[in-house]
Fold this sequence. Notes:
single chain, alpha/beta, Dihydrofolate Reductase, subunit A, eight-stranded mixed beta sheet
Amino acid sequence: MGSESIENQSTLTPLIQSLSIEASFVRRVDEDLGRPRSQTSQRARHPNNPGPITETHPMRKLIVSEFVSLDGVIQAPGGKDEDRDGGFEHGGWTWPYWHDDIGQSFAALMKDTDAFLLGRRTYVTHAQAFEPMPAGDLFGDMMNAPRKYVVSRTLKEPIWRNTTIIRDNVIESVRSLKSEPGRNILTDGSSQLVHALLAHDLVDELHLLVYPLTLGGGKRLLPEGVHATFTFKAATPYPSGVVGLDYTRERN
C-alpha cells in the first residue's frame, strides 16, 4: 500500500472534540499522568566479542487505539461531518455513550506513550485541536508532548510541534521507528494506515472501545485477508454500555 492511499484517513474522535473537559476529569488525568519514565535498557556484550559494551533496548510497542461499532466500523466516531466518504451518514455515533471513564482510559494509555504515528488527516485534525493550547492545559500538554510521525506525501511542512513527516518507505520507516529507544507508539483513527500496519504485522496491541450499536457500513477496523492471533488482555465495561477490550499480538 503506497503512502498516497494511506493519507486519506478518518480521524476526529469524541476525545478530541471533548476539549471542554469537566474539572473533575481534569483532576483525575492530572493524578494519573506522571513524569515520563526513562526507557529501560540492558547493557550487553556478546560472549565472544571483547569489544565495548553496547546498549540494547526492548522493541517498542505499537498500539492501535480505536472507537469501534459492533459491526467493526471506525468511521467518523466524533462528528456529523467528520468523514462522509462513501455517503456515510452516521458521524458522531459515539456521543450518546460518552463517559468520563472512557477519557480516563486514554489518559492511562498515554502514560507509557511517547510518540504518535498518524495518517495525514488524523494528524491535521489533532494538530488543529491541540497545537494552539497553552502550556499548562493538562489535556493539551498530554497530547503535545509526544513526538509525532505523520505519513504523507502532500503535507508540505509540519503544523504540530515535534513532527517528522514520513514520505516514502512507510513500512520500513515504521520498523525502524519501533527499533529505536523509547516508549510506546500510539496510532488512532488513520483507518488505511492501520490496515497497512496490520497487514505487515507491525501492531503489537489493540485498545478497542466497542460501542453498543451497528452502523451497517463504513470504514472498518480490520482489513480483508489478514490472519493474525491476539491474546486477550483485559475487558473494562463502562456505565454507558461501552466495553474496552485490550489484546496483545501473539507471535511464535
